[in-house]
Design brief:
- This protein is of the alpha+beta class.
- It is built from two helices and eleven strands, in the order H-E-E-E-E-E-E-E-E-E-E-E-H.
- The strands form three sheets. Strands 3, 6, 7, 8 and 9 form a five-stranded antiparallel β-sheet that branches. Strands 5-4-11-10 form a four-stranded antiparallel β-sheet, with no helix packed on it. The protein has a two-stranded antiparallel sheet with strand order 1-2.
- The longest helix is centred in the N-terminal third of the chain and has 20 residues, at 5-24.
- It is globular, with a radius of gyration of 23 Å.
Length: 149
Amino acid sequence: MIRPTFAKSTASFLAAAFVAAVIAFGWAGGQYAHAARIENRVAVFSGIDKITGERHTFDVYVDETVKFGQLEITPRVCYSRPATEEPKTTSFLEVDEITLDRRIRRLFTGWMFAESPGLNAIEHPVNDVWLVTCKQTSDVPPPASLTSN
């Protein structure tokens, strides 16, 4: 008689793989482990003016609108992780373009990722903008509309 050792070893392997996956993904007692997320007050962007070739880095407070060339940039949130975690810096923002006839046209609403600047960078005929990092404070004073809250 042939023993079904293959079935037992396969079942044992799958059980061990499942346990390893559960441990690797931090699942314990029905709870998923989440990396700590830090909510920041300031988003830092870089932008390039394609006409002059100049690159600029600028701070924007959350819920503040800053003009960069023909673009108006408004970050709504800016998240990062502690230094002990894998870097992941994200910002949800809105970007509008001021057209030549002074109309405002929405170019982008969504998430931008500092670790993948090409994923959702704003590519415009004159100005490109991408997220660099998030931070708690800035040398630039906050706008009056944000300090009165």
